[in-house]
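Human:
I keep going back and forth on a fold encoding question. Comparing notes only helps if you start from a blank page. Show me how you would write down a chain together with its backbone fold. Write it directly below this note and I will take it from there.

Assistant:
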Amino acid sequence: MATNPAHLEALRGELKARGLDGFIIPLTDEHMSEYVGAYAQRLAWVTGFNGSAGNAVVLLDKAAIFVDGRYTVQVVDEVDDKYIERHHFEKFPLLKWTVEKSAKGAKIGYDQELATVAWEALAREAFAMKGIELVAVEGNPIDAVWADQPAAPLAPAVAHSDGYTGESASEKRTRIASDLKAAGADAAVITMLDSVAWAFNIRGTDVSNTPVTHAFALMNADGTGDLFINEAKVTDALRTHLGNGVRLRPRDEFYPALAGMKGKSVLVDRATNNAKVFATLKAAGAKLIEEKDPCVLMKARKNRVEQQGARDAHVRDGVAVSEFLHWLSVEAPKGGLDELKAADKLWAFRQKQGMLKDKSFDTISAAGPHAALPHYRVSPESNRPIKIDEIYLVDSGGQYLDGTTDITRTIIVGTPSDEMKDRFTRVLRGHIALSQTRFPIGTAGRALDSIARRPLWEAGVDYDHGTGHGVGSYLSVHEGPQRIAKFGTDVPLAEGMILSNEPGYYKVGAYGIRIENLVMVQPVGEGTEWPMLGFENLTWAPIDKNLIDVAQMSASEIAWLDGYHTEVRQRIAPLIAEEAKAWLMEATAPLAA
């Protein structure tokens, strides 16, 4: 167990000193980030849980952590229920648990920088029935007792060339300013790190696997911008890049600047701006215009330069993945491989490729039953051998200067069971069906989700994650607002958006399957009565034919796979290492051959 009871007791001591009966701990930072820096890993420090999504509440005499279906196994391994109860967030939600376990009139603290106004409203409503008070703290109590808490990073912010972005930062500010004027706003508050990075064409190394720099921003209706960033991160080169249209201001001036916006009309986003932003602006007497972060949709729709960058990055990435798959086909049958060795080798193959800066997320290298954990993360403690007649699943990606990649391949080492082949083929058929789908302009991703699930539903099975997430351009591997999911957003898919196509199947304790390519939304072209969109494939690497039940495949599905493998061969063969070429020819040969 990773839970450290001394951490719990230290926090409880601090809560007592502040007159609080409990404290709520989300896994995010002041930018509402999905992935956070080491200094913001408060949930892990208190509970021992190292997953990428979850929240907890600590009362003076009990505590609980709440996770989704991806982490129900991991939370058992990492969180000791002697000290912290473990719950699925849908079956026993945090607020319900807190109400049931707290005394009438209890004072429950939270950090406004780590909450949204929507969550505040839900919490107050839930607590009101029992007279529980929701208390915004001054200074996070965990920070007060976390003696060796890492400092916020001070790596320099760097310019990202217009040659990769396809649009200058000043041009972006002009577009944003036009939207602000149309909304009647004097300024917009930008706090999401990837929005800040996109708007100013800057990147950084402050968050593992995501090339962003810690900063806040105000985008103004006159086309200027205010960038609030630690002065230690600012170089002369950055000043030159940003130019006269950007005012550089110390990061700790951000909230005071909001406090000085009396009488200003300010665009704020309930989904991305933290509750402290709202509270500060309201206290200042600003007029709030609640709209979406103006960068989000612009960022999601890649321009022609970004689109070509994505294509180029995926070819290089496909070479690395294909060389790895060849290496795996030779080494895995010998025995002696494990999850960590495989992950390290894949990274070594990627490092041979040009323009690579980082991974796009921690590689999911999962053998046997670990493959049934969609977001498994290998560690020295969990490391498992890759065994004969078991499935090995690897989900990985790279951050290249011209694009972000994300690919999953599922491989059988040895001989698959009939059930494995059946499930793999159903996942593949769902992947193919979504790849081939055409849809009218204005269609949201959630309307497409069931297309990928149908072959699995026919067998009475499903998977407990979305089918597709948005992907950035040398930015976040999980980017909104586009999604393909049962409960996705209403945002229509639009030309230039990049998404994943990743149906899966998971048999707990046995094996897991996922096939993931990235796709880009493009117009279908002429010959349709309605204006239609479709998907351009971006990812190029062989799909394991040894796991396919050909009898289950239709002629059109076989034709799609053979066509896909032909393109893989054409794009990858001229660039792949000589020793892997014969393997590539076989791996991409027609299915019927």
Q: What stands out?
A: Residues 562 and 591 are 6 Å apart (CA to CA). The chain has 19 helices and 28 strands.
